[in-house]
């Protein structure tokens, strides 16, 4: 008679490899998360941090490495230096994001190079970003929100808007299109007008 352990492993093997738990947030949840971030002690900074991580699909290490010089306010552009051998690119900054950047920079009274700093005037750490995102998620009533969900949320949002796989690949800095394909494979718009 099979034990529970062996039955579970058989079930796991039978599952299609592309099936995984939902590890991204839809736009309504992103909106709730951003609104919750504004209500924190450092709401202007935290809101911008989460907005930029979502809009640009930034990893934690990429967002904490951002420098003020990477943002061109006059041209509404940001230079995103991708890690993990990713493709670094210049990306546009939307109007609401540009206003949020200006609000954050107007509050700064230092000449530090990093875009995001702590109240101790140091660059944010990985742990700080995890805390900021997790706390905003809890405040928004969302379960287990972590920073990498924002990157996935960006990919799925672009796929659901019908953006081309190669554009999403370059935008997220993926060298291998297989890393981008799951966003487009599960995009809801693919099934529109089938009936």
From TrEMBL:
Example of a GO biological process term: DNA recombination
Pfam families in the cross-refs: Phage_integrase (PF00589)
The keyword Disulfide bond is annotated on this UniProt entry: no
Domain Tyr recombinase, first and last residues per copy: 20-195
Entry superkingdom: Bacteria
MF GO annotations: DNA binding
The entry's keywords: DNA integration, DNA recombination, Fimbrium biogenesis, Transcription, Transcription regulation
Xref: InterPro entries: DNA_brk_join_enz (IPR011010), Integrase-like_cat_sf (IPR013762), Integrase_catalytic (IPR002104), Tyrosine_recombinase_XerCD (IPR050090)
Similarity-based family: Belongs to the 'phage' integrase family.
Designated name of the protein: Tyrosine recombinase
Organism: Pseudodonghicola xiamenensis
């Amino acid at each position: 008679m099979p034990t529970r352990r062996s039955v579970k492993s058989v079930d796991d093997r039978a599952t299609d490899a592309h099936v995984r738990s939902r590890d991204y947030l839809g736009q309504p949840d992103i909106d709730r998360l951003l609104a919750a971030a504004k209500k924190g002690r450092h709401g202007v900074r935290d809101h911008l941090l989460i907005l930029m991580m979502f809009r640009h699909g930034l990893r934690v290490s990429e967002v904490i490495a951002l420098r003020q010089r990477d943002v061109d306010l006059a041209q509404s552009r940001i230079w995103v230096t991708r890690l993990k051998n990713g493709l670094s690119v210049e990306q546009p900054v939307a109007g609401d994001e540009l206003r949020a950047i200006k609000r954050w920079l107007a509050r700064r009274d230092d000449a530090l190079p990093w875009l995001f700093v702590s109240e101790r005037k140091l660059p944010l750490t990985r742990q700080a970003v995890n805390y900021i995102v997790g706390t905003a998620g809890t405040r928004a009533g969302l379960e287990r929100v972590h920073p990498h969900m924002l990157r996935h949320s960006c990919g799925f949002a672009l796929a659901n808007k019908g953006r081309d796989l190669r554009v999403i690949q370059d935008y997220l800095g993926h060298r291998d299109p297989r890393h981008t394909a799951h966003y487009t494979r599960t995009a809801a718009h693919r099934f529109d007008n089938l009936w």
